[in-house]
Amino acid sequence: MIPKNTICLWYDGAALDAARFYAETFPDSTVGAIHRAPGDYPAGRQGDVLMVEFSVVGIPCIGLNGGPGVRHSEAFSFQVSTADQAETDRLWNAIVGNGGEESACGWCRDRWGVSWQITPRVLMEAVTDPDPAVARRAFEAMMQMRKIDVAAIEAARRG
Hints:
By secondary structure, this protein is an alpha/beta fold. It is built from five helices and eight strands, in the order E-H-E-E-E-E-H-E-E-E-H-H-H.
């Protein structure tokens, strides 16, 4: 069954590699159908992998090998909620350690340029706390981080 809404991510020939990495790294992620180009196109030849159907944490996606013309930006990111520091570390390290790069406040970018927010639940609870002082302390702590440190967020929350 074709989903009504699917995220389409543009790659420069690496859609299948990216989909496989996501399926190996994130729970509830799979690689589905692989579609080959029925003819030559500007970024490839007949028979090359043109599109890959996959899911990331249950979200249906298509990877399109459209060529080098379009780059990813932070304007789109996957936000993945994590249960604890161990899960945060595992996902962060998988992305950054596989040719990705760190950014600020729990953001990182994979080697294909897709942005990710690896976000412990405790962080979201803290920065949305009904007590403005708690939310501010947690927010200020987060602003100093790259990968989120759960213990530091919990300490900031407590004051």
